[in-house]
Amino acid sequence: MLVKEGLLYSESHEWVKQEGNIAWIGISDHAQHALGSVVFIELPKVGKNIKKGESLGAVESVKAASDVYAPISCKVLEVNEALLDAPELLNDDPYGSWIAKVELTKPEELTSLLNSVQYEPLCEE
């Protein structure tokens, strides 16, 4: 499993790339491996306010369906519409295929996320 440095991770296997008060959220390589071939994605609505831990959307694979949880409280600014036509991009490039671009509404929550070194042991379980 690839754990990319410079990102923050949730225990539910979402990643966050932060730049100031803006962040991109996606699913980790570990998550896409566990899911298998992704065949459908439900994206959040632009403009929606989501609290940390709430559902940001859902991913369906040939094996299972799984919610994608917001690792931080945020307002959805943009969604990656390319995933609607090609959800398999989450398998092909999980760190390049973000799900939502968001504005942080509680930036202090970033401290509860894991860095790559802290996250790696979770992928080995």
Describe what you observe in this structure.
- With 125 residues, the chain is an alpha+beta fold.
- It has a single domain (8-107), classed as OB fold (Dihydrolipoamide Acetyltransferase, E2P) (Beta Barrel), CATH 2.40.50.100.
- It is 19% helix and 35% strand.
- A hairpin with a 4-residue loop joins strand 1 (8-9) and strand 2 (14-19).
- The radius of gyration is 13 Å and the shape is globular.
- The model has no long low-confidence stretch (mean pLDDT 96).
Question: Can you lay out the helices and strands and say which pair or pack?
Answer:
Elements: E1 8-9, E2 14-19, E3 22-27, H1 29-35, E4 38-42, E5 49-50, E6 55-61, E7 65-69, E8 74-79, H2 82-85, H3 89-92, E9 100-104, H4 116-124
Antiparallel strand pairs: 1-2, 2-3, 3-9, 4-6, 5-8, 6-7, 8-9
Concise structural overview:
The chain is of the alpha+beta class and 125 residues long.
Number of domains: 1
Compute the separation of the termini in Å. 12 Å
Approximate helicity band: 10-25%
Largest sheet: 6 strands, antiparallel
Structural class by sheet pairing and helices: alpha+beta
| Element string (H = helix, E = strand) | EEEHEEEEEHHEH
Rg, alpha carbons: 13 Å
> Per CATH, what is the topology?
OB fold (Dihydrolipoamide Acetyltransferase, E2P)
Second CATH tier, the architecture: Beta Barrel
Low-confidence stretches: none
> Strands of the biggest beta sheet: in what spatial order?
1-2-3-9-8-5
What is the molecular shape?
A: globular
**CATH H level, superfamily name:** RNA polymerase II/Efflux pump adaptor protein, barrel-sandwich hybrid domain
CATH class: Mainly Beta
Summarize model confidence as the mean pLDDT.
96
Number of helices: 4
Count all strands and give the number.
9
Q: Approximately how much beta-strand content do the residues carry?
A: 35-45%
